[in-house]
Amino acid sequence: MKKQQGIKTWRKVMYGVGEISNTLIFTVVPLFLMFYLTDVLGIPAGWAAVVSFAGNIWDAITDPYAGYKSDTCRSRLGKRRPFFLYMALPMAAAFGLMFSIPTGETMAVKLILIILAYMLLLVLSTFFIVPYLAYGMEIDPTYDGRTSVSAWRMLFSIAFGLVGATIPSMIWKSADVVSQGFSQMAWIMAIPIAISPLFAFFSGKEPKSEIKPKTKTQRTSFFKDLRRAVKNKDFNKGLAIYVFSWMGIAVLQLLLIYYVKYVLLMYDEYALIAGIIFGLAIAFLPFWVWVSNKFDKRKAYIWGAALFCVTLCCLALPTDFVRSIVWVLVPLLGIGVSALHVMPSAIVPEAIDRAIAADHTTGSGSYTGVMTFLTKIGNAAFSALIMGILGWCGYISTAEEVFVEQPAGAILAIKLLLVIMPLIVFVAGMIVCAKFKIGREDAKQEGTAQKEG
Q1: Which of the listed residues 72, 109, 378, 408 has the most CB atoms within 10 Å of its CB?
Q2: In angstroms, what CA-CA distances link 320 with 159, 247, 259, 407?
Q3: What is the pTM of this model?
Q4: What is the CATH number of the domain that holds 230?
Q5: Is the pLDDT reported for residue 264 higher than 80?
Q6: Please, how many CA atoms are within 13 Å of residue 80, restricted to the half-sphere of its CB?
């Protein structure tokens, strides 16, 4: 058997640039869409929950199908890369439209427009993101190579997560009318969203699918691939780590601006707080890659998640005390976020490889589709639950970002939800990770077994 060689660095970089679209969409939307609905359009929190749930459920159900289509796509450009090319411009346009809802319309019209725009953005982004993630798992099949590919992708993810977390508020705050500022922000962000998939497209030809000797590849169909993916135990373990991680991060993204504005009363410092979190997340990427290389991905994930959980619990302490140590807590959150970004994305390819070897298939798209499907279902449920609880606790929605004093029940809900919900899923992820044999020695043993077979 020929020894597997890693790909050249420039290809990893070009592939990583493609993450910019994904990151800007799924940083700006989770961080600001609900805030845009409740504090700019004046939509009640309960209805904002409906928007979130409807859009994400629609988005989620398309993910496995997008994975299947990218597995079975037959094109001279490859089976993944055509999606990078064809989705770029429509994605960007849908993003701009979603934050350009006319404020003068009735509540019913605003709800219909935002749901349609949101669903359009999500389904277009799905047909980019699922093939993109599958492509990243395939271009470098080596154990440490995949960590390196993930690290480059996460470099651009966190760098533009920093952009997506800080620049939007600067743009809309500089506008005379906040709603117009949101529209300007969205169309500015749409430019890199349209361009970055082209870098992934030109990162090189796709690797040919390798079918092991004496192994008959199963005929595929959408429903067969879906059933096969959800039944595989190894895949389910890697899937759980990934889904739990991103559900926890989604809660942080959704509630951070509410926590800073209404609990800490530090809204003017929001951009700085977000900037420190994402800036340190970038700075510590090499550190977590080093930890992974020195020990393994599993330990790196557990240590990073544990640090994040301990720091997160401090946010539930009395508000005056949190304000006094906020500039200690914020950097620690950033260090934890760094591990939670890169490690799950590096672990999942190993789980998918085992599933493919066990099921005698050659396509990772269906597994990726199931992964993003369940991630979005979990995020949709959490987002809807959070907004529903805020509405039930009396959260007051406003138009054009007018500041109002929120009732004590809403303040308490923001604080507890920000801590308790991520804590549950991160602890669950650490438990699964501790029981999942995915270390370097496990990978070597499996490779030896496959070679002898």
Answers
A1: 378
A2: 31, 28, 13, 18
A3: 0.74
A4: 1.20.1250.20
A5: yes
A6: 32
